[in-house]
Design a protein that fits this description.
Elements (H helix, E strand, L loop, with lengths): L5 E2 L1 H5 L7 E5 L9 H8 L6 E2 L2 H4 L17 H10 L7 E5 L7 H10 L5 E4 L2 H7 L28 H6 L6 E5 L3 H5 L16 E2 L15 H11 L7 E5 L6 H10 L5 E3 L3 H5 L20
Helix pairs in contact: 5-10
Length: about 290
Amino acid sequence: MSYNRLVSTEILSGQLNNPKWVVIDCRFKLTKTDQKEQEYLEAHIPGACYAHLDRDLTSPVKHGITGRHPLPDISNCVECFSNWGIGSETQVVVYDDAGGAIAARLWWLLQWLGHEASALLDGGWQQWIEEGLDLEKGPVNRLASTFKAAPPKNWVWNVREVLANLNSENILLLDARNADRFQGVRETIDPIAGHIPGACNEPFQVNLDSKGLWKTPEVLHRQYLERFPELPRKKVVSYCGSGVTACHTFFALLYAGFGDTFIYPGSWSEWITDPSRPIAVGEENQSNQSS
């Protein structure tokens, strides 16, 4: 049996010695980019390799052109995934300590390139620690495999497509950042505050319960329909600050059973590189939507 959405700590703990399972630690802190890798070396789930967001899951930033975390080149993905021992028969489980905010990026990349047997660890690092499960320290070097990428799925919108559809009634643009950043009240990362005009704000944290576990597909489905009754009739394009937590929203929508779901990977940090692109501030489209 393979898993393509969630894996529980109970299931993973029983597969740690299975050579066909690969675990990837994606812990990362935007403001201190080396801190989480050091924490990984001090303690991690046994057998887990480490994925560095900037180094492994992002292509080089082109200042003034791209966002902060452009999608990596497919050839770089293939190299990384192969080095982590991911082959065609491998079950991959990814985790972080941020509710899946970073791990969802790796899950999305794997699925985007056709590796269906990839899943998020439900509850992540915190749940593993809370249950007192086994840990180890130091780097992990797995025997390399051969990752064979399928043609990328049609899950990506570029900045031109977003700009051309700002007034389209067929698109629901979801911003996964917190309300302060969306409204332009307090921008803590990017040089310009606000959001893409017409976007709706739905912070990615709403996908989790109070314990940091994923809500059930039924709860997520109901929750998104209550907020956005028109969602089933529209293409949903998720974005955030740099295209990372947008993958969390993408996962949630797919998990909840919605189709026609995409991400805009350049996100806000790319959008603001061109001063001719419009910017909105305030509480636009934050209340329940209807059409």
